[in-house]
Design a protein that fits this description.
two-stranded parallel sheet, D-Maltodextrin-Binding Protein, domain 2, alpha/beta, single chain
Length: 288
């Protein structure tokens, strides 16, 4: 809000000789100025909100875009896929982010753009001798049927499960692609982001969790599933199939602000797509 506007509001708050009526009339007189000030503030930047999985990549591209276009402001908010989808439906954010497919009732209200694809990676501590699992073994671990690493060729140690919170796009994709309807045990430790899961697993030799392939680093070890390692090459070849879309979503019929259109164009440009691939993501079907 402009300094002049704040001063006018302060004046309006002073009790004049006619009391409440005077303040009301002054507020109505200032209303156009207040709305103009808010509009100027809103139009100065772009808000993109949603998936905690998509957010680090969207933020990276936003930083590159802002560096090349001085004076622009792109605010990336990491709140979860469901929150981003709802924000887009409500018009609270011009662009929402999701790391899961839209539900039918959401797709009726939103348009979507696949900015990239991401593989889910099941991770353990680097010191864990287990390097591969079958899909059934992964399901048995996360459902709580298998509770010791010794049953999988590892040490005689309990398995500590780390998963995403309910409503997360990553959790939804894991349930759909890997668990296939089997319930995850209630004893699993829930975390609010992929980065938090990675940190817990990196610090606990007995832990196992799942994160975006794009943020796997040398602090954790990604396991092969059904003898296929999670990698960009295997995703592109179609041999590693635990893959989900990274989406930008917006209300149907929405007319983008100039900055929103320019940012989306940059994300989908050859340069933007190359940046995402450099970070471990795979080009989306809708990408150029």
């Amino acid at each position: 809000m402009h300094i002049r506007t704040r001063r006018l509001l302060s004046i309006a708050a002073v009790r004049g000789p006619r009391g409440r009526c005077w303040r009301s009339l002054l507020f109505l007189a200032l209303l156009p100025l207040l709305l103009a000030a808010c509009g100027q503030s809103d139009s100065a930047g772009l808000t993109v909100t949603g998936s905690t999985s998509v957010a680090p990549f969207a933020e990276h591209l936003a930083e590159l875009y802002q560096h090349a276009h001085a004076g622009t402001a792109i605010n990336i908010q990491s709140l979860g896929s469901s929150a981003g989808i709802q924000a887009a439906i409500d018009g609270v954010a011009e662009i929402g982010m999701s790391s899961r497919e839209l539900k039918p009732e959401e797709a009726d209200k939103l348009d979507e753009l696949v900015i990239a694809r991401d593989a889910l990676a099941v991770i353990v501590h680097p010191a864990n001798p287990v390097s591969k699992l079958s899909l059934k073994q992964v399901q048995d671990i996360f459902s709580g049927s298998v509770r010791s690493w010794s049953a999988l060729g590892g040490p005689e140690q309990p398995i500590d499960l780390v998963i995403r919170e309910a409503g997360s796009g990553t959790a939804g994709a894991f349930d759909e692609l890997i668990m296939k309807g089997k319930a995850i045990t209630i004893t699993a430790l829930r975390q609010g982001s992929n980065g938090a899961i990675r940190q817990v697993v990196a610090e606990n030799p007995n832990a196992i969790g799942y994160i975006s392939l794009g943020i796997v680093d040398n602090t954790v070890k990604a396991l092969a599933i059904n003898n296929v390692a999670p990698s960009v090459a295997h995703v592109e070849a179609g041999t590693y199939t635990f893959v989900r879309p990274f989406l930008f979503v917006w209300r149907k019929g929405h007319t983008f602000s100039p900055l929103a259109k320019q940012y989306i164009d940059y994300v989908m440009s050859a340069e933007g797509q190359q940046e995402l691939q450099n970070l471990g993501l795979v080009k989306g079907p809708a990408s150029p």
